[in-house]
Amino acid sequence: FKDPFFRDESFFGKYTYKNSPAAIKRFPFPFPEDDYMYSVNMEPHVSGRPGSVFEHAFDVDEHYVSEMRDRARVLADDPLRCQSLPHMTLAGWDLLELIMESFARDYPQWFELHKDGNKWHWINRPLGIDDKFTFLDESTLPYGPMEYITRQAQGDFTLQDQREDNLWIEAGMVTSQADWSLDFDIGMSFHEWHAPVPLAGKMGVFDRALKFLLQLQHGAPVRRFNWTMTVDPLLDTSPENYHKWGPSKTTLSAENIGQRQHLRVELQTLFRLPRSNAIAFPIRCYLISFEDLVSQPKWARRLHRVIKNLPDELATYKGFIRNRPLMIEYLSQFDDGAPTSPGW
Ligand code: HEM
User: Fold this and answer.
1) What is the rounded average pLDDT of the residues 174-191?
2) Minimum CA distance residue for ligand 1 atom 31
């Protein structure tokens, strides 16, 4: 089969991660306006333009194989990045089914799923996996169902149980997160795990988002973007490893900012699961260096304005208040002051 995957990228150490010209063009630039503020920015997760990151329910791109290797590396170092409370196993099977069916339908050249009742046969060609197992029988897989499938799918995943008119984060695979910890958050409710976020609570964003999510229907997933900034293309920006990556923020300079500063965009989707009634929350991370980003003039212009206009509280929470002046200085070279139009 045709293999479009970078096989030797690293997201740590020498950082050999890079985006191809095609990946730069399809990068999910998240700013429809020159200003950014939190909002309940959810829309139906329907299939988008061919080639875009929205074409399929789950986007598999050129970084797939390398990202899965990075996940295995992080897990070997810290197994608590993957946790599932005992009552969440059924939700894990729901997630396994959702991902396997989506991958096999959308990328038949890479993935195959054959079912004979509960006897399933899964083939993952890029990762060289060919397994036969019994659906809903954990003893027939090498890991629990959530761990098994999320070791084969890009992005972090959390599973939320729904009860008492609330959502509870009670399972997850979290190895490429923007500075939050599954081990710390597990068992929390929607407002509890969002407590560190500035301003949004007072604006009613979380009240409205929760109300909306409690009504989420099976077969009608939704999506939203989140974003932050990361120095070097590091997927694992966890609090657990802050001592390893936090200090790199102090080494940014006018000379290296183009190569080292990355815009980090999360495409977050929400799926109601059919058997467990849980909600799956895939968080797919895309990284782009400033140098690659400014190759698209309208992105450069807009990012300059967004960063300049951003409230201090958000720049502080997102962890780049210290480097904001450097970013503005760098990006200002690419902003000719022309008006921008709404949209991407
Ligand atoms: C941040 C989880 C859904 C809005 C966060 C954080 C977590 C999280 C762990 C980081 C908090 C920290 O600093 O420790 C989740 C989960 C969701 C979910 C598991 C699925 C049920 C939503 C929805 C919204 C939302 C639907 C819609 C408004 C935000 C915002 C932030 C945030 C605005 C701050 C992000 C930033 O500025 O970088 N979320 N979230 N979340 N979440 Fe959610």
Assistant:
1) 98
2) 197
